[in-house]
Write a structure and sequence with these properties.
By secondary structure, the protein is mainly alpha-helical. It has eleven helices and two strands. It folds into two domains: about 40 residues, no CATH class; about 220 residues, Rhomboid-like (Rhomboid-like fold), CATH 1.20.1540.10. It binds zinc ion (ZN). Zinc ion binds next to loops. It comes from Eiseniibacteriota bacterium.
Length: about 280
């Protein structure tokens, strides 16, 4: 998998150089080959590592897992929003944040909780939003930057809600607010007022709806918007090529989220076994 000989494209300046080069002879980038790992990362992103598809598959896969882990919860229906609603225990096992998870200091749950949903309608609407906003953000920022925005926005929302309310929390809504914020940031820098106005309206309507519907985590929404805004401001979208740093950050966040689900599962399951 690792490539230690031959040539590659420098991730910083785009010129052809040797993989083993200590410093790029053209731009001076330090260790451009990253001990043979840069070609691997480039191949991953070059063959369109479809991060939006991974997000959607993560949401759907974990939703099914949360139902299978605690099947008796499916029967406890009361109302439209509790159709196919996973149980508390299953959700904690897969990385729900707040509540016990926050008191125990399971910090990674601010990432894993993004991919968990509380019912069929919850996941349906969130996946719909991700599928319509995600590709747009990917188009203007690039896939790695889009994934970083999505993850950091969601995590910011949950940190805020964990600190302020501390109640158990799940859902990609905070990340979706982050995607909206990223598109607004882009629109403002580009000066496209029509599109930006539309996006502000969506954000306002979605935020207002949160106050009318029960069980909606408004702190996660506000935090997600703010986190997405700040992260998007820090990103460059003028150049098509994403830096190696951002690509590695995206892969690290992806790996951390996956490991977090496993870690939560081990922690919660072992707590249950002690009892
Ligand atoms: Zn270079």
């Amino acid at each position: 998998m690792r490539q230690t000989t031959g040539s590659m494209i420098c991730p910083e300046c785009g010129k052809l150089i040797g993989v083993g080069e200590e410093k790029c002879p053209f731009c001076g980038a330090w260790r451009p080959g990253l001990y043979g790992w840069t070609p691997v990362v480039q191949r991953l992103f070059g063959q369109r590592l479809d991060l939006i598809a991974i997000i959607v598959m993560g949401c759907v896969g974990l939703f099914i897992a949360s139902l299978v882990l605690q099947p008796e919860a499916i029967l406890q229906m009361n109302g439209l929003f509790s159709i196919l609603s996973p149980g508390q225990r299953a959700l904690y096992q897969l990385g729900m944040t707040g509540g016990v998870a926050w008191r125990e200091g399971w910090w990674w749950t601010v990432l894993t909780a993004i991919y968990l949903h509380g019912g069929l309608l919850h996941i349906f609407f969130n996946v719909m939003w991700i599928r319509s906003l995600g590709p747009q953000v990917e188009e203007v920022y690039g896939p790695a930057r889009a994934f970083v925005i999505f993850s950091v926005a969601g995590a910011t929302g949950f940190v805020l809600s964990d600190v302020v309310s501390g109640s158990p929390s799940i859902g990609a809504s905070g990340s979706i607010f982050g995607l909206l914020a990223a598109l607004i940031v882009y629109g403002r820098k580009r000066g496209g007022s029509m599109m930006t106005m539309q996006l502000w309206q969506w954000a306002a309507v979605m935020f207002a709806m949160g106050f009318f519907m029960g069980g909606v985590n408004n702190w996660a929404h506000a935090g997600g918007f703010a986190g997405g805004w700040v992260t998007a401001q820090a990103m460059r979208f003028s150049e098509k090529r994403e830096s190696r740093g951002v690509q590695l950050l995206a892969l690290a966040l992806l790996a951390l989220t996956g490991a977090g689900v496993v870690l939560s599962f081990i922690k919660v399951t072992s707590l249950l076994l002690i009892r």
